[in-house]
Amino acid sequence: MTPPADGLSPGERLPLGRRFRIVLVLGFLTALGPLTIDMYLPALPAITTDLHTNAAAIQLTLTGTLLGLALGQLLIGPLSDAVGRRRPLLAGITVHVLASALCVIAPNLATLGTLRVLQGLGAAAAAVVAMAIVRDLFDGLAAARLFSRLMLVVGVAPILAPTVGGLVLNWTSWRGVFVALTAIGVAMTAAAALTLPETLQTHRRRNGGVLGTVRDYGRLFTDRVYVGLILVTGLAMAALFAYVSGSSYVLQDGYGMNEQQFALIFAGGAVGLIGATQFNVRLLHRWTPQQIMTTSLLAGLIFGLALLVLAATRTGGLAGILVPLWLVLTTVGLALPNATALALSRHGEAAGTAAALLGAVQFGVGALAAPLVGILGVTATAMAIVVFGGMLAATAVCFLVVQPHRLPVEQMKPTAAFVH
């Protein structure tokens, strides 16, 4: 598509008030997945008792949600490239609403597990279409800045979701959590229907059917730089997932913290991650996404190595674990939005498919970190090994596969900021 004469992307030419409303709704949409995954976590023991099953079986309901999120992105992304953004988005959130409502009356584990898969599919529609809409409306640095804003939501939602779920449980049973998710889904459906325009014009849609989708995915896999960038995001997420999955055991069992102390420490790590994504917006005024991504990955590798050495030698006590760990999270917060923006900037003609593959790889590679920490023993050293391994692999892929120094700077040249 020929760029406009004024050099501004479509989103930057929107009135400020409308642009803000669109960005706000996109932020809420990206929160649907984390809320769906994490909000019912405090209720797992109650569900286990009520449905007369065991903890291992109940964990399958979480696995079902994650499966729906991964597969849903691969299916809905190409669909949104073919028929536009609004219809798959609204249909997906509607599926989420219906599945959430049926979870309220689920009589057994099999039914609940099936409905959780459908919830994941609906949440996937919100996630992948939100990213595609960003790519439809914004280019270059404007897109990188917006991804930083959305990363704020993605970082905050998993922290707040268990707390919200716990508050709901103070007033009702575990089924009330799904009532709350139903209400959230209804509100998001209404907000999306009233606020989000159709951002993919008819002449830009891809109507090749199943074979066309296969060709699009095949073409994406032939783009070495794109594949490298989505692997960078997935491997950086692996470091983050290692922290999320292992920190509760390390800090509570290893260092004797209670639940309240752990919550404060966990929030401290989240502050570093979230703060970095927002500081990235400022950094983009002076440096390119390539420069920020490579520098943050190198810094994360150094901090990850320090974490591994201090954990293995038990040097520095609790501070020897927390300080380098929080620094790694900060570098992840800088790397992720820039790698995402660079990846999607390469395939604006198939933004939905490109966003879907990025999300599925990011989620799939990152999710492997959780069981890996458990296999290694759920100790500070085990967590540090996976964190360092994720950063090492991400940095290696960045420099050996992506080769950011060879990317054309003009594809990410500065544009007018859309929100400050």
From TrEMBL:
InterPro entries: Efflux_drug-R_Bcr/CmlA, MFS, MFS_dom, MFS_trans_sf, Sugar_transporter_CS. PROSITE patterns: MFS, SUGAR_TRANSPORT_1. Coiled coil: none annotated. The keyword Transmembrane helix applies. CDD domains: MFS_MdfA_MDR_like. It holds the Pfam family MFS_1. This is DHA1 family bicyclomycin/chloramphenicol resistance-like MFS transporter.
